[in-house]
Design brief:
With about 180 residues, this protein is α+β, with helices and mostly antiparallel strands. It has helices spanning about 1-15, 40-50, 60-65, 90-105; strands at about 70-80, 85, 110-120, 125-135, 145-155, 160-165. The chain has four helices and six strands; from the N terminus they run H-H-H-E-E-H-E-E-E-E. The longest helix is centred in the middle third of the chain and has 15 residues, at about 90-105.
């Protein structure tokens, strides 16, 4: 019960309005680790890797920033206290500001458990089903959900354009088509 409340609080906290902030200067494309941005699979793996870590473990936020196109947005969605669906569009730096204290205090490991990918030319859409744990040794995830990740290739590298996600709830379980095959 406590874990679902924490997951809901995290989702709603990310969806709540933020104080206006001046956007940070974009990280130059050359700052990205070439292996992180070489393929759609690599950039998604880097995205999960860079936000994951034990309590007290600092994240490499410059690496995180280097994955995102200068126009990129993150969009957490959830349900507010009135039961209405809400979504909040934030920058990568706003994500860092909002999430870093909780990631450091609680520990957070997000890992992909299933993936569906669609590609046309320079764009890729990844439906990435995830599970979240505080410690890798946790017997069960405290949350699961689906990340909708849009990627763009400029001819030199892949960029994250947007990450839009929704956590699983009792009212909105993850469809079987988005889970790993059983058996």
């Amino acid at each position: 019960m406590r874990l679902s409340i924490l997951a809901t609080a995290l989702a709603l906290g990310c969806a709540a309005p933020a104080a206006a902030q001046a956007p940070a200067a974009p990280v130059p494309a050359s700052a990205a680790v070439p292996a992180d941005v070489a393929t759609p699979e690599a950039i998604v793996a880097a995205l999960y890797d860079v936000i994951s870590g034990d309590a007290g473990a600092a994240r490499d936020w410059n690496r995180f920033r280097s994955l995102f196109h200068p126009t990129a947005r993150l969009a957490p969605s959830g349900v507010n206290r009135e039961g209405q669906g809400v979504v909040r569009s934030i920058t990568p730096d706003e994500y860092i500001t909002r999430s870093e204290p909780l990631l450091l205090a609680e520990g957070f490991h997000e890992r992909e458990i299933a993936r569906r990918t669609e590609r046309f030319g320079r764009i890729v859409h990844v439906w990435s089903t995830y599970e979240s744990l505080h410690r890798l040794s946790d017997p069960q995830p405290f949350a699961r959900g689906i990340n909708s990740i849009q990627l763009f290739n400029d001819g030199a590298r892949w960029w994250v354009i947007s990450v839009y996600w929704q956590a699983e709830t009792a009212a909105a379980p993850i469809p079987a088509d988005y889970l790993p095959p059983s058996g």
